[in-house]
Prior knowledge:
275 residues, Spore Coat Polysaccharide Biosynthesis Protein SpsA, Chain A
Amino acid sequence: MEPQISIILPTHNGAKTIAQSIDSVLAQTHAAWELLVIDDGSTDNTREVVQKYCEKDARIRYIKNETNLGIQKTLNRGLTEAKGEYIARIDDDDFWIIPYKLSAQYAYMQLHPECVLIGTGVVVYNEKKNEVFRYLLPETDKDIRGKILSKNCFTHSTVLFSKRVALECDGYGEGVEAKHVEDYDLWLRLGTKGSMTNLPLYAIGFTLHENSISAEHKQDQFAKDNALTKKYRNDYPGYSGAIFRGTLRSMLYHFFGLVPKGLQHSVIEWYKKNW
């Protein structure tokens, strides 16, 4: 059976968590997929963990970058290797929590050929796999277009998108200007080619690491988000509000570290649901 969906799973030293990600793919009711596990120069036993799955299921392929190329080039290698019409994404510490995630997205794409990108809602877990909070994202193309200059309206491990259109858009940006925002950059380009949507389903479990709360690259990411807002100002509405929001967000983030640890998850929950 030729795959309809190619699932790209990049990993770097992900041996401790990747099994849960792969198991969640295997649990999907939509069977016409291939899983491309692209090992970006791991030095742990990731290969051994993945090879056990490859031996049991021919739909799983292990691909190794002999040196660490970084997430952008690794994702583009996945696009090049993919055989499916659509691309799905999952990270090595995330997992799909409903078995019909792919089938629901694939069915929507078949009914709406103008759609090039579809995501879902998210359940956020801490590193102990306890649920912290959950949120949905803007659902309709109109709502997404009205907000996408202000915020990334898609969580990477939720998406399904057209491989053909992504390649027409030259895939993930590999330049320094897209580092840490390579997904957001691609969504903005995809949105110039067709419609976008999010299904109102809590379909993925996203792991929130404690060190990501005070992420070292956040200010750089905020600056690049603002640069993308300026770049696509003529493609989407709300430019002035988006620039104001981006500037305010960057300023407020300086004070986030002063928030007591016990309240930081609540602040992030409010931010995800309301900002």
